[in-house]
């Protein structure tokens, strides 16, 4: 392990985090079980998971984390009823605290020159610096790496591990990364790495994800209890194109933060100096649960090998968002997944999924 770590940290730029649209070996999910995430809705949530797995499994293996044999059996019943081919799913009995695989799941990187070499950049997870029950989730990269026989590289800065959730970043696969200041640089709310500067994060991204250009947006959307994850706001859809959420109602609390993000993006460029194309993505009408705003966003889509899964909210703008993304992904089926219940957990499809890149590009 130490030899691998020396190779990665000592040879900067030889490893990169692939873009989500690049070929996957598999998609990871954590089967739901924490009732506090979806109070009174667990039955409905299982069927949403079933539909996600059914669609994803048409193009890749789906690897599912379950707590034990009984938990696996519950998942199998749902997946059988919705018609999932059992040969397209694999279960891993590794206990979790929650099911948000995007944030605690392993972040895979590939060698720039040798396409069959894959490692896990092992970040730490502390439940968004908000919840107390996170220790099982924090162990997932180690246990997955051991089961897959994929080496881990401990991500360190200032002689300590670095906390980072997968939903806090989005990459174009060629060296550019999107994130928000609200999530990573706020010194008072949900502080992941106390004392870290912009330069600290940029050095971590360069050393462990192969990033040469970091694009800092300002804030995330209202209702996001991660405090600013970028995957609810702005996403790469190709190396030089992003979709950016846009609120048309000036009275909405998202209007000014999203407008500021748009202004920032106008002057931003990719790692090679090329200007980004920015495609506006609408926001659905506000959704609330017990008086609290929920982070409903079409930007929380997931790009699979054969499909793009897009959260929908029984909103007239569902059709518009699906149309925009269909034009941007002509080689994939763009499918709406009902997410009105799902977003009660303060996240939707991208938050629940984590890609594992193929060892050889197609």
Account of the protein in words:
With 362 residues, this protein is an alpha/beta fold. It has one domain (2-356): 5-stranded Propeller (L-arginine/glycine Amidinotransferase, Chain A), CATH 3.75.10.10. It contains twelve helices and 21 strands. The strands form seven sheets. A four-stranded mixed sheet has the order 1-5-6-7, sandwiched between helices. The longest helix has 15 residues, at 42-56. It is globular, with a radius of gyration of 19 Å. The two termini are 29 Å apart. Residues 1-12 have low confidence and may be disordered.
Secondary-structure topology with pairs:
Layout: H1 2-10, E1 15-16, E2 24-30, H2 42-56, E3 61-66, H3 69-81, E4 89-93, H4 101-104, E5 107-111, E6 118-122, H5 127-130, H6 135-138, H7 140-148, E7 152-154, E8 156-157, E9 160-161, E10 170-171, E11 176-180, H8 181-185, H9 198-209, E12 213-217, E13 234-238, E14 241-246, H10 255-266, E15 277-282, E16 288-289, E17 292-293, E18 302-303, E19 307-312, H11 317-328, E20 333-338, H12 349-352, E21 353-357
Parallel strand pairs: 2-3, 3-4, 6-7, 11-12, 14-15, 19-20
Antiparallel strand pairs: 1-5, 2-21, 5-6, 8-9, 10-11, 13-14, 16-17, 18-19
